Amino acid sequence: VNKNERISLDWKDGGVESVSIGDKTGVGLYTFTESGHVGFGSSNLISEDNIVALVESTASIAKANEAAGTDSAKEIYTLPKQENLGEDSLHYNTVDVASINQKDLREYCKKIEAIILANGKDLRPVISTSYEQVQWRILRSDGTDVAFAPPYARARLSLPLRKDDVSTRGFVAL
After folding, report:
1. Nearest alpha-carbon partner for 3 in 136, 131, 94, 97
2. What is the pLDDT of residues 154-164, one digit of tens each?
3. How confident is the model at residue 85 (pLDDT cuts 50, 70, 90)?
């Protein structure tokens, strides 16, 4: 099961071009035959009917893979049960994305733009920032139930360059 919340802000020509906040939840399912052949499917529609349909669909895919003689992943049956990692700061670090201060994001973008413009007033940087909170929960039929939530922060600088009628764009991402 996966829940993803994200805020992103794009900065261009000295101001905010766009801000977006969104979230989505989904489930991915691996189904194995006894021989270790696998079927995978995912859905953002979380309801009992949709999950049952997903189980049936992935089982059908696994059986088709078995019939076709594709490689198997029988090692799945030798994996030890995983103890829950716990809600410690390493494995479960959640932040309410809606609480992120957009004013701070604007200030960071403004500072980055000032550094770039100090190297050339004719430069036109586009700065994109995003923060993502991704929560995962992995459940296995052997009782394994592991949850973790790694946060992601990204910054991307796009710098269009033009000389006469030729233009190009360079990117740097962190």
Report:
1. 136
2. 999 998 887 88
3. low
Q: Tokens 């979380």 correspond to what residue? A: 46
Residue with tokens 């829940």: 3
Q: Print burial letters for 48-81: b (CB count within 10 Å at least 16), e (below 16).
A: eeeeeebeebbbebbeebbeeeeebeeeeeeeee
pTM, full prediction: 0.64
Distance (Å, whole) CA 106 – CA 142 = 48
Coil, strand or helix: which one is 49? helix
Helices H, strands E: what count in the chain? 2, 7
Cα–Cα distance measured from residue 56 to residue 119, given in angstroms and rounded to the nearest whole number = 59
Tell me the C-alpha distance between 139 and 31, whole Å. Answer: 12
